[in-house]
Specification:
The protein is mainly α. 56% of the residues lie in helices and 0% in strands. The chain has four helices and no strands.
């Protein structure tokens, strides 16, 4: 897991399924044995990264609700997932769930763009910037 300041410009998830390799022979084709499972070790910044993903999900919902462009938040989350989860499906699942939890938590409360929604979005943007800076300063290369 290589954490770089660049990965802190986060974005949403793309899952690509790979098909098993098939042996090429005149006989019946057999699937190659699956690779051994990758041992997923928690990163020292997992707590902060999970919170950052949740904050980004909240910002995504609130900015969409208030009619502000949101493509950069999804793109940033995708970049985070691509950079930080690699071949660790459980980490990918955990960060994706945090993003979705943040999104749904505000969807359950705010149904229209109000002053409270705008204030929450601003506070979450500030929290996200602080988290990103702390993660980069403490764990970045």
């Amino acid at each position: 897991m290589k954490l770089t300041p660049r990965l802190l410009t986060i974005s949403l998830l793309c899952i690509v399924e790979a098909s098993p390799l098939m042996a090429q022979s005149g006989r019946q084709q057999q699937a190659a044995p699956p690779p051994p499972p990758v041992e997923e070790k928690p990163a020292p910044y997992d707590v902060q990264m999970t919170r950052l993903a949740e904050v980004l999900g909240s910002i995504q919902y609130l900015r969409t609700l208030c009619g502000v462009s949101t493509t950069e938040w999804r793109a940033a989350m995708q970049q985070l997932l691509d950079s930080d989860t690699g071949n660790e499906p459980k980490r990918l699942e955990k960060l994706t769930a945090a993003f979705n939890r943040g999104y749904r938590s505000f969807a359950a409360v705010h149904t229209s763009c109000t002053d409270a929604a705008r204030t929450a979005e601003e506070r979450y943007r500030n929290e996200g910037a602080t988290l990103a800076a702390e993660i980069a300063a403490r764990f970045g290369n």
